[in-house]
Amino acid sequence: MTEKLFRDLTTLRVGGPIADYRRPTTRAELIDTFRDVSSGRRPWFVLGGGSNIVVSDEEFDGTVIHVATTGIESRENGAKVLVTAQAGESWDHLVAWAVENKLSGIEALSGIPGTVGAAPIQNIGAYGAEFADTFVLLQFVDAGSGEVVTLGPDDLRFGYRTSALKEGRSGLVVSVTLALTKADDSEPIRYGQLATALGVDIGDTVALVDVRRTVLELRASKGMVLSDDPDSVSVGSFFTNPIVSDELSRRLPLDAPRFPLEGERAPVVVPLGADHDFAGFDGNAPDVKLSAAWLIERAGVPRGYSLPGNNAGVSSKHTLALINRGGATAREVIELARYISIRVHDTFGIMLTPEPSFIGFD
Ligand SMILES: Cc1cc2nc3c(=O)[nH]c(=O)nc-3n(C[C@H](O)[C@H](O)[C@H](O)COP(=O)(O)OP(=O)(O)OC[C@H]3O[C@@H](n4cnc5c(N)ncnc54)[C@H](O)[C@@H]3O)c2cc1C
Q: DSSP letters along 14-48, please?
């Protein structure tokens, strides 16, 4: 049997050999394999499309379960349609299926690489939508007990690019159920750049197919769909957008993009001489999301940047994506990521958080 290498199974194309590789294709086989492997003493790892992981160059001395179950089923539930997809199904195939079947809710998440089973892990999101918006439940095998349990939104504690599954609850996602809406048109457009590209206003709705096509075009222009574009040999965004206090955000240069996390408070107009009770004002301004891409560029790391003698680089289309320019090792990727983090920290005092999971590093 030929040796399996992580670098052939990941979109960043780095990572060493795998000691024990399994690829279950049915639900029963997947669950059995997971129970068997996770109850043993050797390390194990659940792999989807390999589009959000950075894997060490050393051998992975354990078992990799490559999830390859497929299938989409649906049933009507009033105005909604409950759609259940198996974990190994391609996420973008599910989105294309929904659009074709005139079901709205996930069209803005077109073109995100990877599998359905990984989508809840970091609550995938793009263009004003996120996985959590349509999520109903998922079937999960807990690593400790081996039991199949059903988890809902309260169990998953979704946040910006995170969930309870990313924060430590260890196990296997077997299938995912979403509630989509029967409609020819999309959910209201929530993202300025997408509205502009569609020629509509924020809050408008347009044909599902138009949203999908436009999102795919926008993503391709940034190297954010998997293709033969060398800028797509990445994990997508390498860093999340930092969330900082309002006070810290005000210390940044005036042109730094800032996105308050709750709506700004409406101004209270008090007529002169009138008494006013400011009940409910807690004095805390909402936290602010910053643009990691802007911070990186302004810290002096431009698009297309690379360190001398290092085969990793910054995408020529987007400073947030680190790419493998050809033959890069995981070490080189980490070296570049560290360099960028240090520059941003030295310039702005803000520590960037990486988005992907790191496998096989101490
Ligand atoms: C070009 C490009 C663009 C991207 N754009 C976006 C974007 O716009 N928005 C966004 O949110 N992300 C984006 N990503 C990141 C990535 O596509 C998503 O995080 C995706 O959900 C990862 O899926 P995967 O199947 O490849 O997961 P993998 O990389 O295989 O695994 C990621 C993590 O999920 C775990 N996992 C995978 N499957 C299961 C399962 N069945 N059960 C339990 N754990 C599991 C793994 O153990 C690992 O910890 C992009 C990536 C690329 C390469």
A: ---BEEEEE---SHHHHHHHHHHHHTSSS-EEEES
| Pairing of β 135-142 and β 171-182 | antiparallel
HSE toward the beta carbon, residue 39, CA cutoff 13 A: 10
Separation CA 86–CA 128 (nearest Å): 25
The string of pLDDT tens digits covering residues 33-81 is 999 999 999 999 999 999 999 999 999 999 999 999 999 999 999 889 9
Choose which residue among 51, 194, 218, 225 to substitute to test ligand 1 binding: the one with the highest number of ligand atoms within 8 A of its C-beta. Answer: 51
Query: Is the domain defined by 72-221 classed in CATH 3.90.1300.10?
Result: no
Ligand 1 touching residue 112 (CB < 6 A): yes
Span from the CA of 112 to the centroid of ligand 1 (angstroms): 8
Asked whether 226 lines ligand 1 (CB < 6 A), one says: yes
Predicted TM-score (pTM) of the model is 0.93
Residue boundaries of the structural domains of the chain: 6-66, 72-221, 224-262+286-362
Q: What is the CATH number of domain 224-262+286-362?
A: 3.90.78.10
Q: Active-site residue numbers?
A: 161, 237, 355
Tell me if 69 CB under 6 Å of ligand 1. Answer: no
Residue nearest to atom 34 of ligand 1 (CA): 118
Q: What distance in Å separates the CA atoms of residue 240 and residue 141, rounded to the nearest whole number?
A: 28
Ligand 1 binding pocket includes 119 (Cβ within 6 Å): yes
**Does 6-66 match 224-262+286-362 in CATH topology?**
no
pLDDT 10s digits, 103-148: 999 999 999 999 999 999 999 999 999 999 999 999 999 998 999 9
Ligand 1, atom 50: nearest CA belongs to which residue? 236
CATH architecture of 6-66: 2-Layer Sandwich (3.30)
